[in-house]
Amino acid sequence: MTRRGLLEALGRLNIWQQGDRRAPHKPLLLLLVLGRVRRGERRLASYERDVHEPLAKLLRDFGPPAKGGVAPDRPFWHLQSERLESGQAAGGALWQVTFDDEHFSPALSDKPRAAALKRHGALGGLAEPLYRRLRRDPALVEAAAELLLDGHFPESMHDAIRERVGLRRETAGGASLVREEREADEAALPRRPRDPDFRDAVLRAYERRCAVCDFDLRIADDLFGLEAAHIKWHAAGGPDLVPNGLALCTFHHKALDRGVIGLEPRSREYRLLVSNELTGRSAAFSDVLGLRGRPLRPPQEEALQPDPRFVDWHRREVFRGEPRSRPRA
Ligand SMILES: [Zn+2]
């Protein structure tokens, strides 16, 4: 069980399936499990007690919109078909499912659903050698977590997910070791590079103001709190081009990435949508509600307008729930 073998297996999960639909189900299960490894919990987790609810919640909060509800039983079962080494290296399964009920032994293709997994006492965990390796090597846990987060979620969501699964970033002492290891991993598994000019080009196009609220505060010449957001996530293959970008303040960037604000094409411009899943009682909530139906400030040049293909992707894969209706005029 090599370090490289594990990271390659996780890297394969990062290949997007079904066109450009988001597929974060297995990665979220693995992140949940990496949190257990870091806390030193038992290798085999009970589907009913340890996985069903926490994973359902992760899928609801960080997965794509799921109109028919989320299905945490699917990744729990299907992760069994992932291999550690490509090819047919013996004992190469990444994930193992067993049952307390020894008379119950479904084939992989039987795909038992949540009720059956619970009834027969399903237990799932990383393959033994892999689990032992990870227990010995906290830097490898961190590298694996980083790879999964980077492959499936925008950076603005990483801390929230880490917090939830118990994989908060290691501090000081551990960090330098992790950085060295990470450099080695990056050399082995190059990620899709980011264009260093993307941020400047986007901020310039939007005249260095948030396209939603006009936020433009500076400390001397330093624009702080203003960011270049991807409409179609970099992690989902979204290009580093201005028509896939928006200059947004930190808050509106996060709101876009979490799908509580969205865009709707309206003749030659875009109007803002606000999700009905966003709630609150503060003035901040009224501020966000006030965005419903408001136009997005366009870039300097019409040719740099957001591309409808990326806006469609965001609406389909990220925007949560239904848009709130616009206030009556
Ligand atoms: Zn803003």
Topology of this structure?
Layout: H1 3-13, H2 25-38, E1 45-46, H3 47-62, H4 73-78, E2 95-99, H5 114-119, E3 122-126, H6 128-136, H7 138-152, H8 155-165, H9 172-188, H10 198-205, E4 218-219, E5 222-223, E6 226-230, E7 245-249, H11 250-257, E8 261-266, E9 269-274, H12 283-289, H13 308-317
Helix pairs in contact: 1-7, 2-3, 2-7, 6-7, 7-9
Bound molecules: zinc ion.
Zinc ion binds at residues 210, 212-213, 215, 248-249, 251-252.
Write a concise synopsis of the structure shown.
This protein has 329 residues and is an alpha+beta fold. 42% of the residues lie in helices and 12% in strands. It has 13 helices and nine strands.
Outline the structure in words.
The protein has 329 residues and is of the alpha+beta class. The chain has two domains: 3-188, no CATH class; 198-317, no CATH class. The protein is built from 13 helices and nine strands. The chain has helices spanning 3-13, 25-38, 47-62, 73-78, 114-119, 128-136, 138-152, 155-165, 172-188, 198-205, 250-257, 283-289, 308-317; strands spanning 45-46, 95-99, 122-126, 218-219, 222-223, 226-230, 245-249, 261-266, 269-274. It has a three-stranded antiparallel beta sheet. A two-stranded antiparallel sheet has the order 4-5. Strands 6-7 form a two-stranded antiparallel sheet. Strand 8 and strand 9 form a beta hairpin. Helix 6 (128-136) packs across helix 7 (138-152). The radius of gyration is 22 Å and the shape is globular. The mean pLDDT is 89. Residues 210, 212-213, 215, 248-249, 251-252 line the site of zinc ion. The site of zinc ion (ZN) has 8 residues, from strand 7 and helix 11.
